[in-house]
Amino acid sequence: MRTQPTHRHAYRRYLLAGIAALVVTSPALAQDAAEENTGNEIVVTATKRSESLQKVPFSINAQTAKDIQRSGAVTLEDLSRNVAGLNVQNLGPGQSQVSVRGVSAGQVVRDQPGVKEQVGVYLDESVISLSLFTPDLDLFDLNRVETLRGPQGTLFGSGSVGGTIRYITNQPKLGSTEGTVEAGLNQIDGGSLGGELKGAVNVPLGEKAALRAVGYWTHYAGFIDAVGPAAGKNVNDGDRYGGRLSLLLEPSEDLRITPRVIYQKVVSNGFNRSEVWNLYANPQTTSVPAYTFGKNEQYLKLREKFSDETVIADLKLEADLSDSVALTTVSSYSHRDILVSRDASALTGSVSVDLGFPAAGVQLASNLRDTTKLDTFSQELRLASTGDGPFQWVVGGFYSNIKRTYDQRLPTPGYDAFTDARFGAGTSAAVANGFPANSPYNAHLPYSIKQYAVFGEATWQLTERFKATAGARYYDFNEERTFKSGGLFSNGDNQSDKTKSDGASPRLILSYEMADGVTVNAQAVKGFRLGGVNDPLNAGLCTAADRALFGGFQSYKDESLWDYEVGLKARGKGFTFNAAGFYNKISNLQVTLDAGSCSSRIVFNVAKAHSAGAEFELGLAPADGLNFSLSGSVMDSKFDTTLPGALTAATGIRDGNRLPSVPKFQITASGSYEFPVSDTAKGFVNASVQHVGNRYTQPADQENNPRTFVHGLPFLGAPATAATTLNLNLPGYELVNFSAGVELDGGLTVTAYVNNLLNENALLSFDRERGGRARLGYQVSQPRTFGMSVRKTF
Q: Rounded to an integer, what distance in angstroms lies between the CA atom of residue 761 and that of residue 768?
């Protein structure tokens, strides 16, 4: 039994690395920090109270509005480049997947509605995360974006097992008239033209009220070309538009009321998928010309689409009940309407080959339409201490009610006629189970999820330099789901399921201030993620081997995680330095995988896994106008369990194999310089370089790699033995961004930029359909992009 000591040694190694950093750097940093601790304070609310970033006793990053503007970031993926330990897997607009500190269970796709998120995402106080479909919010008029590393189950609940991301917007201001307008254009190298137009205004309404309005529109340029019947250039372009309207009412000094309405719609006309093999276009066909895909190409019989319409209405009330106690209530309602419309012709066609359909039936155009309608209501009420006393506390309660309906349809005009010709008249009607004709697969899944929670956290200032924080959250979840399916590819299911869970997530933090501006923190905290029930396998589509191998996974348990870490925070003359070493012990990790040929995805628990590592962020300001930053992380995220028999190679769940989508190493260096151009203008230049290490999309990609996919589909003259061999280890990549501009007195700023300067073609994830029997490809990064923006503040 050698694995136990090995993992214990890994745990010690990363904690010792953190401690070593403290020992080596603390004396010098303490001396410098004691000399001078000046500069602009960043105030965050990660502990449900306003506090200096450097005084928060756990690992946190905050990107301010200036940081966001300077870096040219327009998405969370852009922001992640400067945040150690934060990884964002780009699957297209509105479909990014987030992991923090290597806690990752694999790629979630559009037909897995029951999977819960591992990173909670909030817009101010409102929860907006939804597994794959976390809204891709516009970053315009934000105050900051906070990344809270490690489990945040005490104050933020389920879905924050890996960490929490918080978009903090600018709030209405009393007695101030101000605003910003911004316009920009960009051109993708080899792609199309994009642009944006945005504006924000703050208007006082008398002495005790103010209104803040924000509106924005962005046109995403496209860069993926399609061949086939639906051929076209730059087919993955799209738009994002929306706005926020916030009202602040302050009838007295002790009461603040902020109602708000948010609307956003994201539409993408395609996906950033670059194919290497397709049932209809591949190097092995002989009855039609063989085809080898070029860079950023895909085959389409039908154009694809993604749309996500989001409406959020929330109300925050803050009241000072006394000189030492404040009350906060947050009521939030959100509605989401999501459509993922994909060309499933190759998927349906590959099944039709197996079913013995004639070529005309295999060639039918097929449209897979996944829709999600979501209504969420949540209410939080909390009391918190105020003032500067040695004992600070917060207690509260939380309730949420989620109604979600997921539907899947596969309209394939003409399919019923081929079905009845192959299997007998009336077959298509007999298997429909009440769903529409000419749709060989259909599913209807309504969900109801209720959560109740109470939480509390307290901090004792035991001495002038030493304080302790303890907290816990008790939660109670109830999930109900029904599943109905119909069509030739389905099992004709009609079933109902229930999932219940309750428990507690504790946290303990010790913090010691070694000198002014230098603090050492140690933390132990537990996080959790709610379990669920898998959809039944599409048994009729599976090979006998896959049906036997994957058919036994039905429900999956709650995932839990214990995080142990030590960290250092230092700030002094012209620098900030934050570092941490951590070890995450994961139990019942919910891993999501393709079920081979079944065109199904399953989630199951891996008993033991871990994620250990170290992270750092260094900021330097050696001279006026000159700033440098360096951030990086090293991760050791692996399974500590081996599944029995054939499941090992089929799933990749083997002791020592890496967790999916997590690079072992990533680092980002950036710099900016501001300099006077004239008495009324100053210039600036910014540059950044990001390295992301190699990754695997799914755990099984580590087995038998490079992988040979035997397609097994004798069609269009291709033999059944036709195969494609690919290396599924996604290579590391580097992204270089550069910008320069001028800022004039009066608030006018003109910026020119180039992103992905070296035109890196980064492979972000591996895309396979029906185990590689229908399609193979990759999600890829945006090519080199040139742009210019103009911003005016008043």
A: 19
Give CA–CA dist 68/59, Å, rounded: 20
Q: Are residues 739 and 756 in contact, defined by beta-carbon separation less than 8 angstroms? A: no
**307 vs 541: CA distance, rounded Å:** 29
Residues 564, 538: Cα–Cα separation, whole Å: 41
Count of CB atoms situated within 10 Å of the CB of 531: 21
What is the number of domains present in the chain?
1
Contact indicator for 105, 131 with CB cutoff of 8 Å: no
Q: Residue 526 is part of which domain span?
A: 3-793
Alpha helices in 135-277 (DSSP H): 153-156
Number of other residues whose CB lies within 10 A of the CB of residue 518: 27
Task: Tell me which residue has tokens 């966001």.
Answer: 68
Rg (Cα) of the chain, in Å, rounded?
27
Q: Give the amino acid at 295.
A: K
- Residue 204, classified by CB atoms within 10 Å of its CB into exposed (0-12), middle (13-18) or buried (19+), is middle
The span from the CA of 734 to the CA of 284, in Å, is 34
Does residue 685 have a pLDDT over 70? yes
In the three-class reduction of DSSP (H, G, I as helix; E, B as strand; rest coil), residue 603 is classed as: strand
Phi, psi dihedrals of residue 360, rounded to the nearest 5° = -65, -35
Give the mean model confidence (pLDDT) for residues 125-147. 83
- CA separation for the pair 739, 135 (Å, rounded): 27
User: In this predicted model, what pLDDT tens digit does every residue of 211-260 receive, in sequence order?
Assistant: 999 999 999 999 999 999 999 999 999 999 999 999 999 999 999 999 99
CATH code: domain of residue 676: 2.40.170.20
